[in-house]
Amino acid sequence: MSEGAVLDLEQEFGLENPVMPYLRQDRLPHIWCPGCGIGTTVNCFARALTESGMDLDQIAIVSGIGCTGRVAGYLNLDSFHTTHGRAIPFATGLKLANPALKVVVYSGDGDLSAIGGNHLVHAARRNMDLMVVCVNNFTYGMTGGQVAPTTPLGPTQTTMPFGNFENPFNLPFLADACGAVYVARWTVFHVRQLAKAMKEGLQKKGFAFIEALSPCPTLYSRRNRLGDGVAQVKYYKERSTVKNGADTKEVGLSYQGDIVVGKFVDRERPTWLDAMNDHFTKVLGDTYTPYGGAHGQD
Amino acid sequence: MHADPKGVLAGIHFMDGDHAACEGALAAGCRFVAGYPITPSTEIVERFASRIPKIGGVFIQLEDEIASSIAIQGAVWGGKKVMSVTSGPGLSLMMEHIGYAAMTETPSVWVDVQRGGPSTGLPTLPAQQDMMQVKWGSHGDYEIIALSPNSPQECFDLMIAAFNLAEQYRCPVFFMMDEVVGHMTERVAIPPADQIEIVERKWTTKKPGEFTLYATTATDLVPEMIKAGDGYRVHVTGLTHDEKGYPAMNPAAQDSLLRRLRNKIRANAEKLVDVRLDGIEDAEVVVLSYGITSRVASAAVDAARAKGVKVGHLRLVICWPFPETLVKAIARRAKALVFPELNLGQMVLEAERVVAGKIPVIGVPHAGGTVHEPEVILHKILEVAR
Fold it and tell me: In terms of domains, do B280 and B185 share one?
């Protein structure tokens, strides 16, 4: 559909796309390809923002580099497009400087689990109060379709020209094992569930990790003859099983195989900041003023 | 404005340079440090970790220098004054984020307690081998400021200057210590808070909607700043960006941004001259030095004078930007420059560039591991004075 057709619809029926107020409209059109699922996840995120009822001035979004790394730039929030792999440590500094902010990290599988993998595991271990949305399209889209730590065994990538022989990460298992207090996986077929997970993630105190499986029709699908974006969404629909509370060890993905989706982990652990405050209050007594609130002053 | 008394440990102390640097940062208002342990800088973060809970702020030891060097920038955009602390190998890991700080104009102080390199090199022994790395180490064109203290007292005093410069110019400011300055213990006088001048962040007075993130009409070319959570809904990116902060992938945007980033330092270069001059007026030979080497050079200068040589001493307190006009003026009068450094020739290249062959510029290189013998510098002074 052309851009004009969308605008006509709006003019004719006086309907504004409900996502529009959340977007920097002066930055549109976006860079994502037709059939890409990243925009769908942004739709879900906008719905989660609406339903959470949170003050948008108190939400900051931090992205790394890559196709999903561009999300921050399109959202009408305080937004930070950082360096490759380093969205989580940037977000850590932002959150600790102003604990009143809800800080969301929104990035891709390569950014978060390859170059940024060390930060992912340590932020989960610390239970840093961040919500991490990881859009997993099994490939490096921005650079042209190279193998990622999430690429299942089998498919061809430009740097695995004869098919991938490297074992992939099972991201929910990784996040769970490292201590994330909320872990979920949905696909861009599951828009309601994904939006709900994002809303829960926004409201969760502690490290929340949400994996959103998304097609990359331009590179991953085309190179492997998997059809267009719609074909991948059909695959998600046909092969996904909802198993809330599933053992994350069992939710690894295979090439075009069965997909387990659901909310796998939802538990309580003290956040890094709560642990710091509790510990210092205990050991330092009156000499310590608990740190927190807006700008860390109260 | 004056320093917040909570961070000022006023009084006379006997402390090493690492500890004094930490006290300088606290007095300057630093309330967030992310770090990773590395010799010989670790005492700075150790002290910060033990002092900050009672002052109000955060120390976090992160998983590596890469994380530390970007976490501090998140904290800046959350409203804090920040520093990170490291030594050569850690500095190498931080390079990408030095570029990010330059590109996003994130005021930040980067402490480098230099040790011998390359690679793991000499972890416990001094060098001044990172002087070119801090100037040129991250990819792309950008400008930085670098200060070089030569005593624990200066680790305190100049650290406050470093924080003030970071706020004033919104660029990475390097604090170039070395193992000897970091570990030597001397008298450090910390004045009361009301005698410490602090430069506040250049907060905007504009309201959301009227504010454009990187627009500036100021003569210093430095835009005003905001922090996340105040309703401005800004976008910050390491991509080439326009005045709104939006990505702008075109040569015109690149040209205008990079020239402003360069010119906000270069056009203010004369204001950024901080040197200590000793007898250069009628000097035939002028010794240039910085950091710990300046103390050895002073001994050599005194010895040369005792032998009747007209020798002056120019110590760089701010190494970058290099005091180009001043050194050019000296080159019109003096017969030669002698430039000892604890490296095999780094800042001497800048002196050579500035002097442009008018007079000889004689380096006194040293690979690091200890300081120069004053005699080596003296010998060079006598040689060129003949």
Answer: no
